Amino acid sequence: MTEKKLTRKDFLRNVGKCSLGAAVGMAGSNALGQDGTGNTEGFTWPYPWAYIDPEVARIKAHNLYYGGKDCCAGVFGGVSEALSDTMGAPWDTFPIEVMLFGRGGGVGWGATCGTLMGGAAMISLVTEKGPSGALINELWGWYTSEMLPSAAANTATYETVKMEGPLAQNVSENPLCHASVSQWCLVADKSVGSTERKERCARIAGDIAAKTVDILNAHFDETFVGTFAAPKSNGICLDCHGSGHDHTVMTSMKCTSCHTDAHSGVIQHQGCTTCHE
User: Tell me: the pLDDT tens digits for 93-145?
Assistant: First the structure.
């Protein structure tokens, strides 16, 4: 009898089509609980992945945003719920609420966008540390360089409808919630508390959930190729501040998205009026 080698690519394709019982059977001991029941306590890192539809994750993330999970847990949950539908354990019992801290850039601090933290957490959960860096870099770079909400987000058919029609788009140029939201509000002429701004973040949650799935599907399909590169303009700054004589900066975001006066010095930033007169 001739044995046929099952490649990782074939396995991932099959597990997305098969029932939970078949998926568990192929996944082996790592996909079974220690007691044979499939309890999540028997799973070890990295968690199992199955090929899923990014558009399914998009709609789920948008729903979760309005379902009390906000941006960070919304993205993470959008992907994990799609995985749960496909393969059951361990995703059917995973507490996505652990990601609630990331809402509003970290409970409203406006730091790193919650959607990016949710996507990065998912990548970190299902991949080894080594390859995860390039995948997260691609996700964050995409966010900073694309017109968002994307055309796909502006034309999707959502289950939770707070408003219809396309929203204004902008390129954030950096991954900070405060900067991204504030710049969009200026472009759209809307307030942070407006229905439009909330819908904007809900749609971007869908965008990032879908992009996270795209990246992970490609990674496990062994077809991932990173395309993001730090802005060329950063080279002017980093020649000195990156590894030169004044090594004080570590970043991949566009320097001038915050530092329009390159030599004002971060130490001078004592309040909002330093940048915003």
Answer: 999 999 999 999 999 999 999 999 999 999 999 999 999 999 999 999 999 99
For the chain, the structural domain boundaries read 54-220, 234-259
Alpha helices in 88-147 (DSSP H): 114-126, 129-145
**Is the pTM above the cut of 0.85?**
no
Q: What percent of the chain has pLDDT over 90?
A: 67
